[in-house]
Amino acid sequence: MLKAMNDQGKAVISFSQPREKLEQLRREHLYCPNCKQPVILKAGEVNIPHFAHRSDGQCRHGQGENDVHLKGKMHLAKWLFQQKHPIYLEYFVKSIQQRADIITKVGKFYYAIEYQCSPIEPQELLKRTEGFLSQQIIPIWIFGPSYEQPLKQEFYKVNTAIRTSLLASPYAKSLRFFTYNPSKFTLSIHHPSTVHQNLAFSSSTTKPITTFSFQDLLINESKENREKEQWLLQKRRFRTKQRQFTSDEEKEYLQFLYNNRLHPQYLPSCIYLPVQNYHLFHTPIYVWQTHFIMDVLDVKDVEGSFTWQDLYDGLSDFFYPRLTSAYPSSAIHPLYDYTLKLDQLGYIKCHEDGTFVKKKDVHYPKTLDEALRNDRELLDQLFNG
């Protein structure tokens, strides 16, 4: 931990002290802000100065913090202080029994900065987020170097915790998440445009943290919007990749196609389209969209109708289990957003009473070249429409 209390009940911050002051602190009585038990100052030549419980202590506050986490908290606190934002380091919110790495106030709003270096279960991340939000404190999750896992071709590895914490800011259009590397002093803002299970296409902005302002976390947009091209690349990969190692779900999907004498190469271009909030569901987007087209739309005649309830009842199994977004976001269901996309593309007509009317048949390409050409034409229509 970076903060302790002295005999007068005043907070003592370890990293902001000169060497002679640290030597003086070694001789003082210092206490954990959480359990009020004595703590000792650790201020060697390598690790940053911090306080620690004695080995026989039972308090969990500060336990398990490594040097990366301590440095990250210290850097983030200094970064906010240099922008003249108030900082409350390792602040305990009594009403919800939660401690934030940093609490700050920017404008009219309070923010909890959580620097997450170790693995965290999505349920715990969600619980902590909801706790802060219940007190009108907006949590900002910033992940440590262990979460920085870029892959080739602009892919970025995003585990379930990151997917849960994708920030949908009311001041910006794109989803984003953040990583900070204290050894390089670099902050990264990542903008995932397509998320498939634990992979995402992500354009990222990485710069020294001092070149960012706090507001950049909320309003920064990717300078280069390549979402359409990334979806085209993803669809090509979906159609052509060799599937040597597949999950049971993928095997079941491929068997379904095989039983219908189909292969991903020859699926209609209206399958595997981007829709809102699809990253919060475990079932791959192309699975339930394939079943929508083949089990619902293909069996209807042109001008045939179906209802939202019919549609949802038939496909609801593909939407469990569900991840819960840590932040308030659009409540639109990805299945319903898909109907809006199909309406935009002229396949169906959505009516206000919750019914849908089929307007044209779906085209199945005969060759891979035709499929890829159709993909581009359809995405051009979708993104430019």
UniProtKB/TrEMBL annotation:
Competence protein CoiA nuclease-like domain sequence ranges: 65-220
Competence protein CoiA C-terminal domain boundaries: 229-372
A Pfam family recorded for this sequence: CoiA_N
Residues of the Competence protein CoiA-like N-terminal domain: 17-61
Protein known as: Competence CoiA-like predicted nuclease
Organism of origin: Alkalibacillus filiformis
Taxonomic lineage from the root: Bacteria, Bacillati, Bacillota, Bacilli, Bacillales
